[in-house]
Design brief:
CATH architecture of one domain: 3-Layer(aba) Sandwich
Strand order of the largest sheet: 4-3-7-2-8-1-9-10-11
CATH class of one domain: Alpha Beta
CATH topology of one domain: Rossmann fold
Helix content: 55-70%
Shape: globular
Number of helices: 22
Largest sheet: 9 strands, mixed
Strand content: 5-15%
Number of strands: 11
């Protein structure tokens, strides 16, 4: 099964999940069971599925054949190279290939001068006017090549300007930065490129991130702090004839294979094995040489050999264009594509599945609990009315008084609920006092003041350490508040279930662990790239301070923003079942009292009322049965493994 087939099956699976969610939303509306919270959550789930992206990053030093590999895997069907691929440096800036229907095929280019501001690439994406746009003619491979060559554009500037824009000019960089006779330096013209291209895989949500070599990666920290860590797969390309060079090893250690970092989804591509094809050697000798290079790379990078794939991207591209099956087999690209398919798609499906399962289960259970609560209340009402058959008015009055007492007791219990709401609001305020962005802004301000006023490297380092210590402390205190809220809600859920028969189940939990781990990751990156003795001694205090806030503090803020959004959603979700069940119980008590009043006023309406309620009971049972089928259908689709079988079943 090819990558394209795998991705098509995955897209079909997503479409089927969306279909079940649409059916669920329609069913809720048809049965007048809509709830603002549930409606919003279903819309959010559908938006997530619609906007779901599968990100694959290609990372390499220059001249490793990275662009050629992308051409071979994704663009061979165009009968020519789409991305520029020539000797030397071709991709000068990080480039994202994706597709959005709302935009015309084009390449959007962010000028390198944008680095002078403190804004990140993701922030610049909100302002289209800051980007230069070049339209792409997709009817011609040559026209596409001409447009896409813009990612190779360079400009010449004075060394001081290059340094201002983030390019470090050391003695070892002469191979990267060509210094002309007039003293100017050649640097990338663009900071970032986004190519909107109507390729079948891109249309289904694939995003390809093409990154330039070490120097460009190091000068764009958003790559290493956000884009690369969030990629579902990272292909690190080496040259088969040279193996792991020192610059390759630096890229690997600093940006991809960091100690304690994520290794899953990291694939090593040993490209250009055709350079080892020697007509004076036998096929066995060539294979043995390739095997030795794989073994050496595995040892150097501390990876198992099954994560290293020797290929010839150039020969694979030629083979695909010419339909040469023998050359394609010799290029070994099929093994890489199979590994990419078998690891990437199932891993992504698992991530999506976990997120969907929890959200849908909560919406489903809340709806089912509501129906079961209505059914229990209705059956109690039917039982009460059935017991009134043949009874005199005195018994009816007694029953009416009993329901009144029950209603009064419940209303008395509501006072406890309102008290809980008050405590809940107080605990929520405490939570956001630690987790909220105001405390983070205060921390950023005090840290900046400490760094600006620092007179020694040790003081500067201590200020950055203090920043992370306080951020972790805020998360830890927030976690305590979350535990206290959850404990209180568990107690009140049980109390109302026992005293008033509400079907509440257990409140859903919430964890801040993922954000704690993200803060740890950012702290480790900071210690390696900013808060190290070498960096502190070789950079001015103002440069260190600027880098810390432009590169690290902004990512910490984004982490806290995500934590805030998730915490707000959880707080609404944990209180909603109580509110719904209390409202429903009040309605049921009111209906029971009204029914008995009607019987008291006209005893001949008793049988009519019992029959009427039995019809309502039948309808409720059908609704519960129908809801059960929707839940089973959702779980069946959710559990499907992406395969060709999914496509066949859909067809």
């Amino acid at each position: 099964m090819t990558l394209a087939q795998h991705f098509a099956a995955y897209s079909e699976w997503r479409a089927r999940i969306s279909g079940v969610l649409d059916k669920f939303a329609g069913w809720l509306s048809d049965n007048e069971l809509t709830d603002a919270q549930i409606d919003r959550r279903i819309v959010q789930l559908l938006d997530k599925l619609r906007e779901d992206r599968l990100q694959v990053a290609f990372v390499a030093e220059f001249s490793r054949g990275k662009s050629e590999l992308i051409n071979a895997i994704f663009f061979a069907a165009y009968g020519n190279r789409v991305l520029p691929s020539t000797a030397g440096r071709t991709t000068m800036c990080p480039t994202e290939l994706m597709f959005e229907k709302a935009k015309a095929p084009s390449i959007e280019l962010l000028p390198i001068e944008s680095r002078e501001s403190k804004a990140s690439i993701s922030e610049y994406k909100r302002y289209p006017d800051e980007w230069e746009t070049v339209l792409i003619d997709t009817t011609s491979a040559e026209a596409m090549q001409d447009a896409l060559r813009h990612v190779s554009d360079v400009i010449r500037v004075a060394p001081a300007v290059a340094q201002t824009l983030g390019f470090t000019l050391n003695d070892g960089d002469t191979a990267v930065f060509r210094v002309d006779e007039d003293g100017t330096v050649e640097i990338p013209r663009w900071r970032h490129a986004v190519i909107n291209f109507p390729h079948p895989l891109l249309e289904q949500g694939l995003v390809i991130l093409d990154t330039p070599g070490l120097n460009a990666i190091g000068t764009e920290p958003e790559l290493t702090l956000s884009l690369l860590p969030n990629a579902h797969a990272v292909l690190f390309i080496l040259a088969a004839d040279t193996g792991v060079t020192q610059s390759d090893l630096t890229v690997w250690r600093e940006h991809i294979g960091t100690p304690g970092g994520r290794r899953k989804g990291r694939i090593i591509v040993l490209n250009k094995i055709d350079s080892l094809w020697d007509e004076l050697k036998s096929a066995e000798e060539i294979d043995a040489e390739i095997t030795r290079q794989v073994d050496t790379c595995a040892w150097t990078l501390d990876l198992p050999e099954n994560q290293i794939f020797p290929v010839s991207a150039q020969k694979a591209l030629v083979a695909k264009i010419n339909g040469d099956a023998e050359l394609l087999a010799r290029s070994r690209l099929s093994e890489l594509e199979a590994a990419l398919s078998e690891e990437l798609i199932p891993a992504k499906q698992e991530i999506v599945r976990d997120g969907l399962e929890t959200e849908f289960a909560d919406c489903y259970q809340r709806t089912r609990s509501l129906l079961e609560s209505r059914l229990a209340g209705l059956r109690e009402q039917v039982t009460e009315l059935t017991e009134l058959r043949g009874k005199n008015k005195g018994v009816v009055e007694y029953m009416m008084g009993k329901v009144r007492v029950e209603k009064e007791e419940f209303e008395s219990g509501l006072q406890r609920y309102y008290a809980v709401r008050s405590v809940f609001s107080q605990l929520t305020n405490n939570l956001f006092a630690h987790l909220g962005l105001d405390s983070l802004r205060l921390l950023s301000t005090t840290t900046r003041e400490a760094m600006v006023n620092a007179t020694f490297s040790k003081t500067l380092s201590a200020a950055m350490k203090h920043f992370f210590d306080v951020a972790r402390g805020n998360l830890a205190r927030s976690d305590s508040e979350v535990t206290e809220i959850l404990t209180m809600m568990e107690a009140i859920y049980k109390k109302f279930a026992v005293e008033h028969g509400l079907k509440l189940g257990a409140p859903i939990g919430f964890s801040l662990m993922r954000y704690e781990k993200e803060i740890d990751r950012l702290d480790q990156w900071c210690k390696t790239h900013i808060n190290s003795m070498f960096q502190l001694l070789t950079h001015e205090k103002s440069q260190v301070t600027q880098r810390f806030f432009e590169e690290v503090a902004v990512q910490v803020r984004k982490t806290f923003e995500r934590a805030n959004r998730d915490a707000e959603s959880w707080l609404k979700a944990i209180m909603a079942p109580m509110e719904i069940q209390i409202r429903e119980h009040q309605i049921q008590l009111k209906r029971r009292l009204e029914s008995i009043k009607r019987i008291h006023q006209a005893t001949d309406t008793l049988e009519e009322r019992i029959e009427e309620l039995q019809h309502v009971e039948d309808k409720l049972l059908l609704q519960i049965q129908s809801l059960g089928k929707i839940g089973s259908n959702f779980n069946d689709v959710l559990r499907q493994t992406v395969s060709v079988e999914v496509l066949r079943n859909a067809a």
